[in-house]
Amino acid sequence: EEFYKAVQLAAFGRKTEKITLVKGENGSLGFGVVGLKSEHRGELGIFVQDIQLGGVAARDGRLLEHDQILAIDGRLLASSISHQEAISLLQNTSGRVTLVVARGP
Predict the structure, then answer these.
(1) What is the per-residue pLDDT across 25-81, written as a single tens digit (0 to 9) for each?
(2) Within its chain, how far is the Cα of 20 from the centroid?
(3) In angstroms, rounded to a whole number, what is the distance separating the alpha carbons of residues 105 and 96?
(4) Were 45 and a residue from 4, 38, 63, 82 both cysteine, which residue would form a disulfide, CB within 3.0 to 4.6 Å?
(5) pTM listed for this prediction
């Protein structure tokens, strides 16, 4: 499948994980993101900056600080996506949100 191949390319050999979270009543997923240059590629990536105690992501336990978000609801995040665009994608999803993240060296 093309999406899977694209995710593997974007991960650059790092472990990937698919994580589905359900937004809380306040519409929050319980984590913050930041746009950073990836040390693996030198391209901009969207990374988990912090996980809020007691929030949806913290209770789920799979999403970790410093994970790189590669896809949101099946949409691969291109290296050109801005921090604000990623936040908008996360905020504009309703209910269930599926992330594909990469982590590790």
Answers:
(1) 888 899 999 887 656 555 678 999 999 999 999 999 999 999 999 999 998 887 667
(2) 11
(3) 29
(4) 38
(5) 0.87
What amino acid occupies position 43? E
Residue 77: give the domain boundaries: 2-103
The C-alpha atoms of residue 2 and residue 64 are separated, in whole angstroms, by: 26
Q: In total, how many domains does the chain have?
A: 1
The two three-digit tokens of residue 38, written as one number: 């990836």
Say which CATH number the domain at 44 has. 2.30.42.10
Tokens of 77: 């995040």
Tell me the pLDDT tens digit for each residue of 1-10: 898 899 999 8
Whether 86 and 72 have beta carbons less than 8 Å apart is answered as: yes
